[in-house]
Amino acid sequence: MNLRMGVDLGGTKIELAALDESGEVRHRERIATPVDDYDATLDAIARLVATAERELGARGSVGIATPGALSLATGRIKNANSTWLNGRALKEDLQARLDREVRLANDANCFALSEATDGAARGAAIVFGVILGTGVGGGIVAHGRILEGANAIAGEWGHNPLPLPRADDHPLPLCYCGRRACIETYLSGPGLAADHARASGERLGAAEIAQHAAQGEAACVQALRRYAERLARALASVVNVLDPDVIVLGGGLSRVARWYEDVPRLWRESIFSDEVRTRLVPPAHGDSSGVRGAAWLWNRP
Ligand SMILES: [Zn+2]
Questions:
Q1: pTM of this prediction?
Q2: 192 CA to middle of ligand 1, Å?
């Protein structure tokens, strides 16, 4: 069996899935992340790999989906919200533990690769994978490969400013990164909640706003309208640069069904083309995209 193991190293759980050559999951295990303990994190991953190989009776390749990014300058993890990983030589340390070459990519890139390889964007040449969750991230896959970029930030559109603010975008929110009106401050879950609170005085989480909107509550319907219009504006600027065949949405906010009709109608006025062929689609693999994309890091030589 040609075994590919993907490990999703998250802030609260570590999950391993072992895929066979057809992409079918042959083994899966999920454990709690040893928070704030780097050595225990390495041990936990090594145990997951050993268990999978014992169960399946085969040795396989290992790919890791990490938070943050690999710094090309230092070869170490940076920008991870699991802060005990920052500054660590995770790739080298895992290679030593596992006695093989390991490939790493950040979780947004793994999401994009998963959906481009055998998910909602299968067969598409250029894919932009978008995470709309606690934060806003993104990854680009071109012809089956992750585009890393010179700074390892390709696709990270969340800290660009929202294009051309409109009246109801004001006052421009301050982002934790120090800039104002970052896309993330509007389109993350907390961003949606804050926008709804500003407009209505009502404190609801993003999932509750979506539920209340589905029940017809006017203020929540308006919040989703504003969100869809901002998402369209923000994605249009990506389309004008990257011109992807498919944009796949992921993260908690990708579950709102109306985006897939509203946004392609709304982005037409901001895309510099008379005809727009780019498709906006929901994810096929949902929460499995981290492990699947990590496994597919070994899909190519
Ligand atoms: Zn920012």
A1: 0.94
A2: 15
